[in-house]
Amino acid sequence: QLQLVESGGGLVQPGGSLRLSCAAAGFTLDYYVIGWFRQAPGKEREGVSCISSSGGNTKYADSVKGRFTISRDNAKNTVYLQLNNVRPEDAAEYYCAIGRPPYYDCSAVYVPAGALDAWGQGTLVTVSS
């Protein structure tokens, strides 16, 4: 069973920073493309960022470009999403998910759910002053 565990969510002030983590349990992330997605109440899920298995390719949604950074540490079997200059519209439940080419190759941040192999349980980011 592919298990992903997100952490790092919480309350952050506008303009603040937060780092989300996504750790794999019981398997290696080395060969997977990993994405971060988010869903705010009443809104559809949206792709935020993705990173290729090598880490050499990353993509970002226009809304977070220049503020969020995705990275991976295969030695720690963990992927991170650094959130900087957080805005109120960034408030959402954040999920990590994994997949493999050709179904998920990080050519775009959006991908149908059926292309993904596993999702984490989510971590909530709340933005408030």
Keywords, please?
11 strands, 129 residues, seven-stranded mixed beta sheet, mainly beta, 46% strand, single chain, four-stranded antiparallel beta sheet, globular
Class by alpha and beta content: mainly beta
- What is the number of beta strands? 11
How much of the residues is beta strand, in percent?
A: over 45%
Morphology call: globular
Which ranges are low-confidence, i.e. pLDDT below 50, for 5 or more consecutive residues?
A: none
Mean pLDDT: 95
What does this molecule look like?
- The model has no long low-confidence stretch (mean pLDDT 95).
- The chain starts with a strand and ends with a strand.
- A hairpin with a 6-residue loop joins strand 5 and strand 6.
- The relative contact order is 0.31.
- The chain has 129 residues and is an all-beta fold.
- The strands form two sheets. Strands 2, 4, 5, 6, 9, 10 and 11 form a seven-stranded mixed sheet that branches. A four-stranded antiparallel sheet has the order 1-3-8-7, with no helix packed on it.
- Helices cover 0% and strands 46% of the residues.
Short description:
This protein is mainly β.
Topology:
Elements: E1 3-7, E2 10-12, E3 18-25, E4 33-39, E5 46-51, E6 58-60, E7 68-73, E8 78-83, E9 92-99, E10 118-119, E11 123-127
Parallel strand pairs: 2-11
Antiparallel strand pairs: 1-3, 3-8, 4-5, 4-9, 5-6, 7-8, 9-10, 9-11
